[in-house]
Amino acid sequence: KAGVTQTPRYLIKTRGQQVTLSCSPISGHRSVSWYQQTPGQGLQFLFEYFSETQRNKGNFPGRFSGRQFSNSRSEMNVSTLELGDSALYLCASSSTGIQTQYFGPGTRLLVL
Amino acid sequence: QQQVKQSPQSLIVQKGGIPIINCAYENTAFDYFPWYQQFPGKGPALLIAIRPDVSEKKEGRFTISFNKSAKQFSLHIMDSQPGDSATYFCAASGEGSSNTGKLIFGQGTTLQVKP
Questions:
Q1: Which superfamily is assigned to B4-96+104-114 in CATH?
Q2: pLDDT per residue over A39-58, tens digit each?
């Protein structure tokens, strides 16, 4: 089976812009979780989607949002980018009822 | 209560040594404890995971030891190799609607194995 894929792999934006990141889960996985990784804060949970519904949300401002499509692919959007949003954004997928999460390679976002 | 504390922050061992990384948690609702390995420029890769009803689990050269009463768990890497040089993260999660799909990660340990 192909692993979790994320596009794009690298992105450079300027403050105030918005960005959309995409994640394709492992085939058959219906849960997709998103994480932000920074040197200072480590790996932090953003939100989780299952069957097109947000099931859980971390402590991030409303500028961070996401959605999931009927094929389980997910996107996350960050509006009004700030310098502090520069990070590696990771998505992970898991099978229904299973806690094991498999991560993609991430999207490296740099906000200038 | 949602934190997972990981130590040490960094670790250097000689080839063949047994690095040990420790994690502690507070939330007794956690019931799943995975370890991830991350190389630069890559996403975290699942190494091994354990549940609280088991005190030890081995997979190849990787062993998790779990102490439920102390709310601590640790990763041991037997016969470490230079290729094991990476950052290691412990994590925890629990069942239930408030924890679905949510892993709480430790701060990470950067391991260097010298040849």
A1: Immunoglobulins (2.60.40.10)
A2: 989 999 999 999 999 998 99
